[in-house]
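Entry 12.
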Amino acid sequence: MKTASFATLHFSVAFAVAYALSGSLVVGGLLALLEPAVNTCVFYFHERAWNKHQSAPLKLHCHHQQMYSCQQGKSPAEAVGHV
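Predicted 3D structure (tokens):
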């Protein structure tokens, strides 16, 4: 029910904005249908890129490595191998 409610709200806002800017019911209707379809395609590619980025190994440099290791329960000296 929540998804249907949000979809209705989304279409209504898209229609209202397009109608307010164009003064045309046809343009408002077309944009209300077109905008969510384009957003769906963009979201698909965004998710692919995001997942690819998330699966990449974490590369930390200099003091960032020490900070991350400290958060994992190591002292800064242990993080850089001085202990």
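Annotation: Residues 13 and 51 are 30 Å apart (CA to CA). The longest helix spans residues 25-55.
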